[in-house]
Every structure is written in structure tokens, then in C-alpha cells.
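Internal tracking record. Fields below are filled automatically when a chain is submitted to the structure queue. Please do not edit lines marked as system-generated. If the sequence contains nonstandard residues, flag them in the REMARKS field before resubmitting.
Queue: standard
Priority: normal
Entity type: single polypeptide chain
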Amino acid sequence: MKTILVTCLILILSLNFMNTPEKTPTGEEIIQLMHTKWEGKWGRNMRFDQNVYHYKNDSLIRQEVWQEILSSPKNLQIRFNGFESGNGILFKNDSVYHFEDGKLVRSEDSVHHLLLLGFDVFFLPPAETIQKLKDLGFDLSKTHEKTINSITYFIVGTGSPEDENSSQFWINKKQLYLAKVILNRNENTSEVEMKNYRLLENFPVAMEVDFKSNGKLYMKEKYFDVSFPAEVNQEIFDPKSFNKFRW
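SYSTEM-GENERATED OUTPUT FOLLOWS
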């Protein structure tokens, strides 16, 4: 009789354990998971063009073609409408430089949150990424999961499934790459959604990116002519050399 009772108790405890929902990792743990999965497997250097669509009040108002080159971590140059325009923007070492007609018009210290979560997270030490995210205002202690169209996401920055206003980022749970990031600054929310991921030369690339401000679409990017150079001349990312190089 005693043996039967012990066996039943073990069975009940086992069933309770099996029915216990899996705990969502913390933001710090999710960053570590992303880094571990993709370290050495993500494209460090990427060169691409993109069609850029500008919207106002849900209507397309302008279309452009931009040229971009990326070298992770912390290096990105964007040229607006060809190199001849002299217009563009440079991100380097958590600073941003704005150019018009080939001349530097302003610069400021700024961590590019999309660059950090979409690319640099796979190259920087996780502790550095985590600190930068905290400095940007993401609460890494608040997480939950949400499934949309059969895809489950880790959501970091809020514990409420109804909250899509707080600063937060969405990570594809299976693939462990960025799907969406929302920043709330003074009650103004900016949202970037990474869409249509494809494997190119075995590297994942989001081929479309949507940008929204307070829920309204204002820009859409569609990438093309994507390549992954083995080496990139780092002088390209020197603000003093903005007019010197083309790719």
C-alpha cells in the first residue's frame, strides 16, 4: 500500500511539473541567447541598395534609392540618392554624422538602437549590448511572449501583452533575431519592423523595413543587390573621408 501511495505522489508531482508553463527568459538572457546562436554566423559586412518610399497621411509622396554599407559593430554609412548628391548619414562608434552637399552639417552622440539590436548584438559582448539597451531606456526585467500568425516572439520591455507603447523590442523566439523595436520618448513612439527575412549566402537579411511614428507609416525600405564583402575599408566610416569612397 505504501509503495502505491509513493508511486501516485511521484506521478502527481510529475504531471504538475509538466503542466508548469515555461518561464520567459529575462532580457539579459535573451540577448545572451541571440549572441550564442549567431556568433560567427551573421554577416559582419553588408553592402546593399534600397528603394525608399516616403509616406504622409498614408499616401506615398516620394520615392528614392539609397546606397548603404555596414561593417559590424558600430559602422554604417548611408548615401541618399547616389554618391553625386553628397547627402548622407554616417554612424560610427555610437555617434552620428549628417552630411549635405558633401559637408558635415551636424553630429551628436547617439546609440543607433536598430543597428544595435539588428546587427551589433551578434558581435559585441552581451554585457555591452545589455548596458546600452538599459541606457536607451529598455526595462530588461519585463518580458513576455506573444504568438502572431504562428510565430512566437520574445517581447522585452513590458510584461503586458496589451502594451505596445512602452519602449520594447520583439525577438523571433525560434530564429533569435530582431522583428520589431519600439521607442517611447516623451509620449512619442517610433516603431521599426524588420520583415521578409531571407537567407542570402547563408546570412539572414530582413529585405523590408517599415518605419512608423505614433502608429503612422512614414517610410518603407526594400533592399536589393545585397552582398557580403569579406573586407571593408574602414576609412569609409571616417567622417573626414565621407566624399572619398564609393562602393
